[in-house]
Amino acid sequence: MLPSVAVSTAFQVFQVFRQGATIVIAVALAWSGLTREAIGGYEMLFYIGYLATFFWSSGLLQAMLSLFPKLDTAAQRGFFVQAYLIFSGLSALLIVLLFLAREPVLRALVQQETLPYWPLFLVFLVTNIPATLQEHFYLLQERAWALIGYGALSAGAQVAVITLPPLLGYDFRWSFVGLVFVGLFKYLWLTFFVMDHLTWQWRGETLRRWWTIAWPLMTYAGLGAVNISIGAWVVGQLFAGDREVFGIYRYGARELPLLAALTGALAGALIPQIAKNTQQGLAQLKRESSRLQHLLFPLSFLLLLTAQWWFPFVFSEAYRPAVPVFNTFLLLTIPYFVFSRTLLIALEDTRVVPLLVAGSIPVHVALCWLLGNHFGLVGIALGSVLTFTLEKVVTIIYVQRRHGWAWYQYTAWRWWLGYGLVLLLAYAFMS
Predict the structure, then answer these.
(1) Exposed, middle or buried, 322 (CB in 10 Å: 0-12/13-18/19+)?
(2) Cβ distance 328 to 309 under 8 Å?
(3) pLDDT in tens, 89-108
(4) How far is CA 164 from the centre of its chain?
(5) Which residues fall within 8 angstroms of residue 31, CB to CB, at 6 or more apart?
């Protein structure tokens, strides 16, 4: 019999597999012999895919985690098929729109007339987006080992199909053909899961509750995706759509490896717990985030102090100019460990969330443009870090005034302050 594993830990492991796959792919492509222009085109495709899908899928998934534990047993049984049909339909509609509006989308986002492998990439998206339901279904069922196994298989398959063709000397097109098959495989997995748990109960009340929680989160995620992508957009504008420069920025614009995966998985896994019992859930969040700090902050110090040696070795000498950008994004480790938005989602107070990020967008554009003109790619990165930190501060203030929860009640603040100060000093020393 397999040993017991906490579902929050399993979800973190799943996200580690997912982000680890991204890192392995980036390293393999850098050493594959592909040109920086070809890799920049690949990064542009996934950047556009992120912008087009993240906002609505993320909002619906987070709302699902908050809503599902509060449904009665009958409503829970019928929820899987409802979610499956909604995600499949929205994905199909989105891909049709992207296919028909290719030229204006590419010009607006990356200043390109066309990108190689665009149709194949869209086929991958239409199947891969609904497939993100699968890990969340396992999470809601508290099937820890199923989460881990599915994460290892799907991440491993994606690494293999993207990296093997160029490493073996085949045309890069075969990587995208492979992605199509991976997307189909994951979608069929989801389909069989839904059929196995099929209970046809189309409950309008459940959907209304889901939508009430989800639409502010979808708006927030959409604005957040725009906000996160402003740095890359400014790079495209200041450097006239240069694919090589875009690729260098994207290689450097990676927060601490596994930071978003581990903190996001912890927050997502504990949203249902906080929704059931806020005080106990926040105590667990504070306790588990403290353990995570002891892993990720020391790793941040180590990577920052040594990036000038290991980064060119890992990603090849061609990407040495990305080192200062990477070091700047390591500072995101500090605000990531304050989970104020997680508390808002669990309390179903999501309507204010889009307003917070909407207010930060003009600030983000202004900072990236101003600092980018003066300091180049590092200035653009610094503008993104400062904006994210400011948004977090405003969210903290709102949570305390609206709900009475101070930031230190859900943050392991003593370790956080000490680690954060050391990281800032290390960054100043290396700059």
Answers:
(1) buried
(2) no
(3) 999 998 898 888 888 888 77
(4) 25
(5) 167, 316
